[in-house]
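Replying to the earlier thread about multi-chain prediction with a worked example.

Input:
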Amino acid sequence: MKMLKIWLTAFALLLVTQNLYAQGAIEITRGTDKASPIAVVPFGWQGGTPLPEDMAEIVANDLRNSGMFAPFDRRNMLSTPTQASEIFPRDWRILGVEYVVAGQINADPGSDQYRLQFSLYSVVREEVLMTRTVSGTRSQLRDMAHHLSDQVFEEITGIKGAFNTKLLYVAAERFSVDNTRFTLQRSDYDGARAVTLLQSREPILTPSYAPDGQRIAYVSFESGRPEIFVHYIQTGRRERITSFEGLNGAPSWSPDGERLAFVLSRDGNPEIYVMELANKQLRRITNHFAIDTEPDWLDANTIVFTSDRGGRPQIYKQNINTGVTERLTFVGNYNANAKLSVDGRTMVMVHRQEGTRNFQIAIQDLERGNLRVLTETSLDESPTVSPNGVMLIYATRQQGRGVLMLVSTNGRARSVIPTQFTDLRVPSWSPYLP
Amino acid sequence: MQVIKFGKFAALVVAMGVIVGCSSKGGDTGGTGAVDPNAGAGYTTPASSGDDMSSEEAALRAVTTFYFELDSAELKPEATRALDVHAKDLRAAGNRVVLEGHTDERGSREYNMALGERRAAAVQRYLAGQGVSPSQLELVSYGEEKPAAMGSSEEAWAQNRRVELRK
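Result:
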């Protein structure tokens, strides 16, 4: 069976290739046809003691996570330049490397300021593409590295980098059946530098970042029942938004950050509502005896949501002004928890194919409708997409523990987000942060 | 499927255990250690039909967790017998109970939150149909957030798809 699949794939590839040749001039955008080999040379540092962060390693990981770059193993480098003038193209061409990032870190004597001057070099063109400096304090070395990654990534791909972003998620430590500690965490997108925002003995669920990056919404059972809160990250101030009888769940911010869509069952059945945050005015959007839940905004007037009105959970789209509703998913017998890309062209969701028992993350093109399964795990949920649409993080289970996995939307890069916690769930990617 | 059968079997064994436990103590319950005057030596009185009823009722009363099939909120036939006993108690006492809806870990969390509520609502509807006031029945869904059994096996999943009646 597997063999057959491989042969079919090979045959399909052959057809595609022939077709491409037949069409003649084809422009292949660099970075999407294959992962570009790039060398991030360990940065020079003259200070006496080693720095607390390996900045070149952070940059290499960022670029690898995008699925568009294949960082070259530093142990096999023939030379270790720390500035553009020390880069010899033949050293890299022979290794098949297309780009080199080299740099030097300096500290201002007697201060906490660090400067990293770096160059991006094209081996193919034998020229320096950019030379820049990033600076910051000792505690900002990771931010500086991510900032460098953003600039290199955008210079080569033309896509804005999203490595300087944050992740929200919930960690659960289960001591016994009736004793679990839930904490809401905020970390760098790659899992580093986690900070606890909230701790509770009752479940915390569905955190989500407002478009301003300053506020978050989530569901907390701290009172023994679900309630939706808005939490200001800087001050820690919290505001209880809903506390109705029944479900209070799945909060999702409108693109302008002024409204919140969520689910209430106060009318006897899970329905989607939109609240104007300034005056707390509530509007019911759906009206169906089925389960309607997990709203996400396509634009200011349109939401997508999960509904089992057709018998099984599928994704629907509704204009919140006209009420016109359209089903979006037709492949698979379970599609839920859709998250739209910022450009509104694609959505990712929890998906189960016909004839399988696996819940996986799939991506669907909203214009053409075609669907692609992105993950190779089987109890996948809660997908969340980077603001540039290049990467996604989702929750799955490994050896009985909840883990967060990162995959590139081109399917090439996969890794587990490292953590100090035993059980993680419900990741939510921040927007671009200032 | 096999697991569910095992679950039923286990429930039956527990129920029988309670029944057996009660009837073996049957001699003690009547009159603080008094021996049935009608009983000959070496002869144990078989439990009367009345005792049988109440001990079975006690066993059913002890059943406060009701299980569901995957992605289903339909009550299983065996659940209704225990719920009938709870309905009788609730009608008599007028107290308030919480119906906690739960799901297994598969699928999306917020959808499961809604599915857990649908299960709790199915129990609520049944009890209301037996004359219990809906105001006595509070619904809370925890979705997949509070599993009874850990692990990603069919057995654990079957134990987690449930509604718990809590006093």
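Chain A is about 15% helix and 45% strand.

Feel free to reuse this layout for your own posts.
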